Amino acid sequence: MSAIKYIPEPFRIKAVEPLKMLTRAEREEKIKEAHYNLFNLRAEDVYIDLLTDSGTAAMSQAQWAGVMTGDESYAGAKSYFRLMDACKDIFGFGYVQPTHQGRAAEKVLMPLVLKKGQLAISNMFFDTTRAHVEMAGARTIDCVVEEAKDPAKRAPFKGNMDVELMEKTIKEHGAEKFGLVVMTITNNAAGGQPVSMKNLREVSQLCRKYGIPMCIDAARYAENAYFIKRDEEGYQNTSIKDIVREMFSYADLFTMSSKKDAVVNMGGLVGVKDAGSPLVLGLKANGISYEGFVTYGGLAGRDMEALAIGLYEGIDENYLRYRIGQAEYLAAKLDEAGIAYQSPVGGHGVFVDAAALFPKIPYTEFPAQVLSVELYKEAGIRTCEIGSYMLGNDPDTGKQLKSDFEFTRLALPRRVYTQAHLDIIADALVSIKERAGQMEHGYRVTWEPPILRHFQAHLEPIK
Q: Which CATH class is domain 24-53+316-461?
């Protein structure tokens, strides 16, 4: 009998959505029709959808009740002011503007702080942030700590910035070349790994020393705060809300996809600490041009109402204990089976080490995409590749880049799946592991767009 403990849900289920399971033959045909790109599948042909934790949460009864009270006025809606009150209370920023999602916040902000020829440093850029930096004409540099690059190494706060490397990089290029430092919390590209408060503080001090603005990519800020409370000395008796306030106190700017830790299906935020900053006028101008008026930012009033409620639900400690507990339960099942992943497990899912599972498949044939396809064939599970396929080609040379990781991300939607679903996922991975040694080849790209290729590209198996 397994000794793995499952954290019970701090809620009960009020509504259900039917699922269907296709036969294996049907799934093999569906993934072929999708050109072996999981994004091209119809959701109705997926049994367990772990493609992303973005916008896939189950909203609470309080949020659905809020939907019915949303003020749909074009300008100055009361739902907007309710959202702003929640943002000021939780984040302590002087100016916050809604957007329809996180990459919209990046589109509004990045051209204001970066220009052609500049550089931006991060503990690790995720795909859309990297793309918006490059679209602004700048280039990215990742300075994640070395421990993160060894998935088997169990260490706390593997999402941290390597502060010594960051300062060395700034001195090497010259501080005037850098337009921005981005701290991604939790560090999605490194496996959902948390960032410590100490590291945020040290990065902030370096930014001030060299006059570079610091921006938090805050999609999973609440999960990061939970890790700080649980694992960082001195924070065990601090509330999640107070931890969040301190985290944001070290930044000048933030962007947020609210579709993650704010537990809503649509929404984003962009913030400036100093309400008197000239950046505010730029944000308003870009917001009006790209997103609609500044008091709705591409969101319906009902979305802002649900977001105002979700910001508080997302920092509830009982919910966060269950949320992180789900990932830890699935990770423990993989430990039993000897399947490698980015360890210890991060906040929003399990990042399986596909390079370790398929050692014969080179990065140019995308081992993590191989595992993603096999999981769909095996059990109708849709996941996402976080590796060389997602990283894409060098924007200057066009050559395939080699990622530090070849992860298949099992992103867990919030308040959606049960223990039985997690057991099915673990069993499917065990079945794939049993035949993994026979797999020597992966996929080649047959068509790709010029940017963010993994969303649309076509692939074919290499025979």
A: alpha beta
